[in-house]
Amino acid sequence: MALRNSSNLYDAYYFAHGCGRPYKRDDEWLAFFDSIAEQIVKRIQPKTVLDAGCAMGFLVEGLRKRGVEAYGIDVSEFAIQNVHEDINKYCWVGSITEPFPQEYDLIVAIEVFEHLSRIDTPKAIKNICVYTEDILFSSTPFDFKEATHLNVQPPEYWADLFAQQDLFRDVDFDATFITAWARRFRKLNESFTRLIPIYERRLFLLEQENLARTEFGIEQRMEIARKESEILGISSSLAEKEERLSDLNNITQDLVKQITEKEFVIHDILNSRSWRLMQKFQQNRLRLIPKESRREKFFLGLLGGLDRLREEVVVTFFGHSSEKHKRGIMNQSSQKLAKTIHSEAINIHPFPERAPVEPHTANVDIIICVHNALEDVRRCLESILKHTNRPYSLIIINDGSDLETSNYLNNFSTTNGFKLIVNRTARGYTRAANQGLHLVAGDFAILLNSDTIVTPRWLDRMLTCAQSDPKIGIVGPLSNTASWQSIPKIEENGDWATNPLPSNLSIEEMGDLVAKYTGRIYPAMKLLNGFCLMIRRQVIEEVGYFDEENFGSGYGEEDDYCLRSRNAGWGLALADDTYIYHAQSKSYSNKTRKRLSNLALNNLENKHGKNVVDESVKYSLDQRELAGIRARSEHFFSRKKYIERGQANFSGRRVLFVLPVKFTGGGANVIVSEARAMREMSVDAQILNFHNYKENFEASYPELDIPVVYSEIEEIPNIAIKYDAAVATLNTSVAWLEPAAPLNDKLIIGYYVQGYEPLIYPPYSIEYQHAVNSYILIPQMVLFSKTEWTREQVTINTGARCVVIGASVDIDLFRPRPRKNRNSFDRPLKIGAMIRAGSPYRAPELTMAVLKEIDKQFGPKIEIMLFGIDSEDPEFNQLPIDFSWKNAGLITPKQAVRFMNELDIFVDYSLHQAMGLSAMEGMACGAAVIVPENGGATTFAKHLSNSLVIDTSSFQTCLDSLVYLIEDDDLRMNIQRNAIKDICDFYPERSAYNILDALFSKNQ
C-alpha cells in the first residue's frame, strides 16, 4: 500500500478479501492495533509516530488515544476515506517513496513493503530512513499467494537494506507483539564495532537455548528407549511369571495341607489338661483382680515398675547397645505421632444457604420523629405506604414542627389511622425518640429518620436478618449516606460521602440492585447509624432507652445505645440486602451538625472509654465483610448496563459450551459464572458434558442453574447445529465440533482459549502438536481469550488471532464472609495453596518445598491449608509432605468460598498462569496473594499494591516473598484491602457480553 499508481488495487474488495479476515472497523481489529499501540507507548515512548501504510488508521487512533502525536499515510484512497472522523485530519493519501512533511521519533511499517516492486523497495526504505532513526518493521516472509505481494523476502533481505542506511536490528527488543517476524531497526550512533559484542551475546544465548533443546530431545529419546526396554523386559518375564504362578499353586496346596494339620493340633491343645488349668487360673484372677478396678491399677503399676527395673539392669549390663535399641523404639513412636499430626485431611463445610425472604409476620412499630423539612417527610411517609407490608403500626412524633408540616402530619395520620404525638416545642431527637419507644407494643421497634426513602420489601428483609439469630438485638440497613453503612463510599473530601445516585437510576431500582448483588451475609457490627435502627423489644426491656442526659441534642445517642446493648450481650447486624435512601438531615445546618457530633464523641469517650470507642469505629471502617460490600456496590450500575446491552443485542440467541469436565476447576467455574450472566441477558446459554461425567459433575456443581446436555463425542455435531453458536473450551473439543460446520453453514463455532494449552504438554509431543493445531483447525472459528498474554501466545506461535474478553471471577459467590475464631488473639496466620501434582507447570513440588520451609521457620504462628488433590493420591504422596498441613482435597466452588475466607495469604507458584482464577478468588475473599509474573495474572495483580507478583522460577524468591508477607503486617493488610476493592472490577457480565459480541456482532 505504498504507490499512488497502484492505489486502485486497494479498494473495498481488497480490504474484504486480501487481509485474511475482512479488514474493517470492528472490535477485533481495533483490539489488535490497540494492543500494538499499548506496547509501543510502554516500551518505546515516542512523542511522534508515522504509520507508513496506515490503512484505516486504527494504529494512529490507538496511539493518539494514549497521547502520542501520531500520523498515517496510505496509498489507498478507499482506506483513508474510511478513517474515523476523529483522526481523519491526521491521515492522508500518499506514497512512502515520496518525501514526508516532518521527521518522526518512530516510523511503523506493518505488512507494507511486500506490496512494493523490487525497484521501489530500496527507494522507500531510503526515504523513511531520512525521516527517522527508529523503525518498527514487519513484512511477511511466507505469504506468496496474495496477488498484491510483489516482493516477499526473508528477514536478512530487509536487514541488508536497512544496514545500507546505517540502521541495524535492535536484538534486545522483542517485537513479536506485532508478528513473529517483526523487527526493530535503529540508527547506529556508536562505532560499528560495538555491534559485534551485542550480536555475539545474542548468538550465544540462542546457541545455549538450542543446546538445551537438543539435550532435552536426547533425554526424551533415551527415556523412550528405556520405556521400550522395560516393555521388552515385561514381555520376556511373562513366561517366567506363568511358571512362578504354577509353583505358587503347588505351594498353596502344601499350605492348605499344613493348615489342616495345625487345626488338628489346636484341637488337641484345647482339650488338654494344661489348657483347662490355664482357664481356671484366669477365672480366679478376674475374681481377685477385676478389670478396671483399683487392684488392677496397682497390679499393673507393680508390673511396670518391675519392667523398668529390668530395663535398668539390662542397660547397665549391656551398656550402649540397649540404649541404642531404646532410642530406636522412641524414634519409631515419634514418627508415628508426627504422621498423625502432619497428615490431616479436613472437610470444608460450605456457608449455609439463607432461606428466601418471606413476608413477615412479626408485629413492628415504626417510629418517625419529625421536625420540619416537609418535602423530605412527605417522600418518606409515601414510600412507607408504598413499600411496607403489613403487619406494622406507625408512630409519628411531631417535635415542634411549623404549621405547614404539622397540618400535613395531622391529615396524614388521620387519613391512614396512624398514631401522632405532638410536642408544641422541639424537645430534640433523643427525647422525641424515647417518647416513641415508650409506646412500643410490637415484637420490634424501628426508629426511622424522616428524611429517608424506603425501598420494596425493606421491612421483610430487615426482619429476616434480625430473626436469623436470636442473639441479634439491633439491625441497620445500607444507605447512600449513613457513615460506615454507606455505599459505595464512606468518606469524600474529608467528610461523610453522600453517594448520589445516577440520574437514570431510581431509588427503588437501587434497592433492587442491593437485594440482588449482596450476599445476605448479615455482617456483625459494633456500631450502627441511627438513621434507621430496628430494635428487638427485649433489648428495650433490658437496656432501657436513649441517654437523654448526655445525648439529648440528638447526636451520639445511637452509638451509646449500641455499646450498652453489646455490654448486655446483644449482637448488632447489618441487613446488607436492604437499601434505604437518606437525604441527610435538613433539620440542622452543617455547622451545627459538626458541633453536635464533636460534643457527642467527647461524651461517648467519657462514658465508655476512648479505647472502646476507637476500637468500635476502627472495626466499622475496616471490617472485611463491609469492605467487600462497598467494593461490589461500585459496580452495580455497570453490571446492570451490560445486562441491558446484552438483552438489547443478543436476546434469544442460543449458545452451547462444550465443557467435558468431571470435577470443579478454574476453567469450568469461569464458564458457569459467565453462562449464568448470559442467561440474565436473555441468552439461552447451555453446557454440554459427557454421560459418564454426569455423577461427578453434578456433585461438584449441586443445584446448578444452567441447563446441561449430556452426550457422547460422536453426538456432539448433531447437537451443536441446533444452536446459534457452539463453543469449544479446550483443545480436544475443537476437533469434536469440526464436523458440525458442514451440517449448518449458519452455525458459529467459537473457541474459548482459557490458556495456551501446548505449554502444559511436553514440547513436540503428540498432545503438544494437537494443541497447537487446534487454534487453526476450523476456518472462520472465533477465538477469544481472557488475557492479553494468552492472545499473544496464540498469535505468536500459531498466527491465529484472539479477541480478549477480559479476566473475570464470580464476585457474588467469592466475597469476604465471616471467619471462624476471627477475634481469637492467638489465631495463626493461615496460608493456602492449590496443589495439582499431575500438572508440572503448577509447580507442586516447588510449592510444597516452600511451604515446608515456612512451616520450619514459623511453626505454630502459621497454619498451612491445601486443596486441589486428595491426601491419599499417590502423586501427592510423592511430594515433600513431611511438615504440618491441612488438606481439604477436591472441593466444590461453595466449599472453596469457605476455604478462601479462612486464608490470610494465598500462594500460586505456577511457572505461568493464563489468568489465575484461584488467586482472583482468594483476592475476592480478602486474602493477600502471590502470583507468577509470567502469564496473564498481571491483568488483575499489581505488585506491592493488591498482590505480590514474582519470578516463580526461583525457589528463593518464592520463599522470600512469602516470608515478607508473613512478617510485614502493614503490607499484608494493605494488600488485602486493595485486593478486595480491585478484584471487583472483574465481574462476569463484562466478559459474558464480550463473548457474545465476539461471536455474533461480526457475524450479523
Give keywords.
1004 residues, alpha/beta, Rossmann fold, 6 domains, 7-stranded mixed β-sheet, 15% strand
Nutshell version of this structure?
With 1004 residues, the chain is an alpha/beta fold. It is built from 35 helices and 33 strands.
List the helices and strands and how they pair.
Elements: H1 12-17, H2 27-43, E1 48-52, H3 58-65, E2 69-74, H4 77-81, E3 91-93, E4 106-110, H5 120-130, E5 134-138, H6 155-163, E6 167-169, E7 183-187, H7 195-270, H8 273-288, H9 294-318, H10 320-342, E8 343-345, E9 364-370, H11 374-387, E10 393-399, H12 403-416, E11 419-423, H13 429-437, E12 444-448, E13 452-453, H14 458-466, E14 472-478, E15 491-492, E16 495-496, H15 507-517, E17 524-525, E18 532-536, H16 537-543, H17 548-551, H18 557-567, E19 571-579, E20 581-582, H19 590-608, H20 610-622, H21 624-633, H22 636-650, E21 654-658, H23 666-680, E22 684-690, H24 694-700, E23 708-711, H25 716-720, E24 725-728, H26 731-737, H27 740-743, E25 748-753, H28 766-774, E26 782-785, H29 788-798, E27 802-804, E28 829-834, H30 844-858, E29 862-867, E30 885-887, H31 893-902, E31 905-907, H32 917-924, E32 928-932, E33 948-950, H33 955-967, H34 969-982, H35 988-1000
Parallel strand pairs: 1-2, 1-4, 2-3, 4-5, 8-30, 9-10, 9-12, 10-11, 14-19, 21-22, 21-24, 22-23, 24-25, 25-26, 26-27, 28-29, 28-31, 29-30, 31-32, 32-33
Antiparallel strand pairs: 5-7, 6-7, 12-18, 13-20, 14-18, 15-16, 17-19
Helix pairs in contact: 2-3, 19-20, 21-34, 22-35, 23-35, 26-28, 30-33
